[in-house]
Amino acid sequence: MCYKAPALSGAFAFFRVVAAAPRAIMPTHVCRPAASSPRMRIVFVHAGLEFDGDALRGRALGGTETALIGVARELARLANTEVCVFAQTPRAASFDSVAYFPLRELKTWAATHPIDVLVCIRQWLPFWLGVRARLRIYFSPDAHDQPFLHRAMEMPVTLDGQAHSVPVFPPALFLPAIDRIFCVGRWQADTFVDQLGFPRDKLFVTGNAIFPENFSPLPRAQREPGLVYSSTPFRGLSHLADWFPEIRRRHAAARLVVCSGLDVYRMARAEEEKLFGDLYRRLTAVGAELHGAIPQRDLAALMCRHLVYAYPNTFAETFCISVLEAQAAGLAVVTSRRAALAERITDGVDGFLLDGEPASDVYRVAFVDTVLRLLTDVPLWERISAAAIQTASRQTYENLARSWHDRFAAELAERPTPPPPAAWPDAVEIAHPKNPAKKMRLDPSTVAHLVKVGLARYGG
Question: In sequence order, what are the beta bridge partners of 180?
Fold first, then answer.
């Protein structure tokens, strides 16, 4: 079966992006021209939420954007290293010696600026942009079941009068053009191989980091007997709403401080209320303090003056910066032995990992009892807190950037000249929307049409 695309209509469905209102940014820096190119030029491509290098100072930000700002800043501080970020930002500007450009300028800019390292975050299509780079890296912080990792885009198909959205261009089409796949943890890397079939020899486990300057942990005597939750509301927060009354009944001074919300995804307040309004009201009813999603420095200061990070996790974390931040603040973390959380915590040393599902009575009893021990057993809390701070102290963006730079340098030594740009296939097959076992063949003109639509956001 062959499918030919209709005329360009603008209806092609990419990943949902809810952007904040544009703000004026005066261009203060541009990357130097090719004639004075330094030894290593690193270019990041991020096509998600709108942000730039100043975003952390004024609002809550997601983990991916936070990490990009942090590692780009530290890479730019290394000798003979130039860093540029192409993102959903309205105007070119420089922050901490990192040049930020609008995503749509990538194709034109790359035509006159040789690239040593190209890092595409979550996006596959830029590898078909015709951009030459000596080292090409795909980086995803996501779990294997997330849509980003299964297709480059989606296309609308109408069959028998019914509209469908069909995934197009699987990762297998791009893997030959990619030198390395960066991921943030061992659990994530293993699932990339086992669940997605990614070649293990292309994987590099990079880790993640925190801003140590944000954290000034207080001694226990100056802290409040508070439990802190700072992940998104759909990762276990509802369990705390159920369990906190028992914790407070057994320890009257206990507090529950919740810094959670979907503003990090730029979700409209009305939509968040529809999804989680009932949960927020339940939390308020049991005495929790709701702060919403708050900027990084404010969150760090809040963490540093409480005792326990209460995270009855129900989500497959690939790294979990929230837990690492909690450790940097000296909080004693109580969470689930799930996915990458077992990489963040050494049970009984720098936090506690609980087996089983939070929905079970066994888990609930273990969680409540562990939290209460940490609220009342001073020597135990002090031992766990000190070890947590030590664990986090090694995981800084400075150290992360150096490990990336060393990896880049080693790889570039083997690639003196850029490989030719990757080309998209003449024709591809997609699953039939009504019967996935059947295949629909897209002819060359349809493929070219889809690629053109997809690359338009990068200036292609």
Answer: 137
- Please give the full DSSP string across 3-35, using - where no structure is assigned: E---S--S--------PPPP--------PPPGG
- For residue 22, the model assigns a pLDDT of 31
Q: Which of 80, 88, 79, 76 is nearest to 29 (CA)?
A: 76
**Alpha carbons 325 and 345: distance in angstroms, whole number:** 12
Name the packing angle between helices 361-376 and 237-250 (round to 10°).
50
Number of Cβ within 10 Å of residue 430's Cβ equals 20
Chain Cα centroid distance, residue 242: 29
Query: What CATH number has the domain bearing residue 31?
Result: 3.40.50
Tell whether 183 and 37 lie within a shared domain: yes
Spatial distance between the Cα atoms of 20 and 23, rounded to a whole number of angstroms: 9
Distances, alpha carbon 186 to alpha carbons 52, 274, 330, 341, 352, in Å: 29, 36, 25, 11, 20
CA separation for the pair 336, 358 (Å, rounded) = 8
The model carries a pTM of 0.88
Residues 200 and 290 placed together within one structural domain of the fold:
no
Q: Do both 298 and 416 map to the same domain?
A: no
Cα–Cα distance for residue pair 336/351, rounded to 1 Å? 11
Instruction: Identify the segments of the chain with pLDDT beneath 70.
Output: 1-38
Residue type, 307: L
Residue located via tokens 């009342």: 376
Task: State whether 326 and 352 are in the same domain.
Answer: yes
Does one domain contain both 269 and 314? yes
Domain end residue (candidates: 371, 395, 419): 395
Instruction: Tell me what percent of the chain is helix, strand and coil, each rounded to the nearest 5.
Output: 40, 20, 40
Instruction: Find all residues with CB under 8 Å of 80, minimum gap 6, and list them.
Output: 38, 39, 40
- Pull the structure tokens for residue 270: 């009305």
Give residue 11's pLDDT.
29
Tens-place pLDDT, residues 370-406: 999 999 999 999 999 999 999 999 999 999 999 999 9
Are 309 and 448 members of one domain?
no
189 vs 186: CA distance, rounded Å: 5
pLDDT value of residue 164? 81
Which class for 435: exposed (0-12), middle (13-18), buried (19 or more C-beta within 10 A)?
Answer: exposed
Work out how many domains the chain is built from and give that number: 2
Sheet holding 439-442, edge to edge: 2-3, 439-442, 428-431
pLDDT digits (tens, 9 = 90+) for 288-324: 999 998 988 999 999 999 999 999 999 999 999 999 9
For residue 186, the enclosing domain spans 2-209+400-458
